[in-house]
Design goal:
Distance between the termini: 91 Å
Number of strands: 0
Helix content: over 70%
Oligomer: single chain
CATH class: Mainly Alpha
CATH superfamily: Ribosomal protein L20, C-terminal domain
Largest sheet: none
Strand content: under 5%
Structural class: mainly alpha
Number of helices: 6
């Protein structure tokens, strides 16, 4: 019985790697060995940076809320404390969006927050 090779499957496997490496520069997109290394590295960075992107957006939302709160006479921490006291359950992403796009809406939230803080202080 002649020895059979795995040529069709291995060729297909290498082709899949090279298709994923399309757009890379030079031998990283043309040669299997280098494409495989480049993809391993790219996937590592992509995984890491998916986590980093979440962190960066959270920082951005907090900065926007802080700027809007300070424009209305509060600090970020007092504002968030007042939100909790007022029973308003909006996440940072939504609050940030309201602060940027709807100034009147954010001021209404600030008024209820200030009222809740006054009530908490009186109690």
């Amino acid at each position: 019985m002649p020895r059979s090779t795995n040529a069709p499957a291995s060729r297909e496997r290498r082709k899949r790697w090279l298709e994923k490496a399309k757009g890379f520069r030079g031998r990283r997109s043309k040669l299997y060995r280098y494409a495989k290394d480049a993809l391993f590295k790219a996937q590592t960075w992509a995984y890491r940076d998916r986590k980093t992107r979440k962190r960066n957006f959270r920082y951005l939302w907090i900065q926007r809320i802080n700027a809007a709160a300070r424009a209305n006479g509060l600090t970020y921490s007092r504002f968030m404390e007042g939100l909790k006291a007022a029973g308003i359950t909006l996440d940072r992403k939504v609050l940030s969006d309201i602060a940027i796009t709807d100034d009147a809406g954010f001021q209404a939230i600030v008024k209820s927050v200030v009222a809740a803080l006054e009530q908490k202080k009186a109690a």
